[in-house]
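sorry to bug you again but im stuck and you know this stuff better than me. what follows is a protein written twice so to speak, once as letters and once as structure tokens for the fold. mainly i need to know what kind of three dimensional shape the backbone takes. anything you notice is useful, everything is just below:
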Amino acid sequence: MASLSRSASLGLSRSFSLIGTTLSLLALSRSRQALADLDARALEDIGIDATQAKREATRPVWDVPCNWLK
């Protein structure tokens, strides 16, 4: 009986992890889209130019920041 409850809790943990990962990827996609929509003055305020912003905004959603992989 203990293995059944352990298995059930493990499955629940994995589904929460999948939901969390999906939400994080959606947020990353929205952030990149917002970056693409910034004008030159806003980009200057955050210290990047239009080329850098475009490069970041066009990265695929699975190309996540390095600190996410640690």
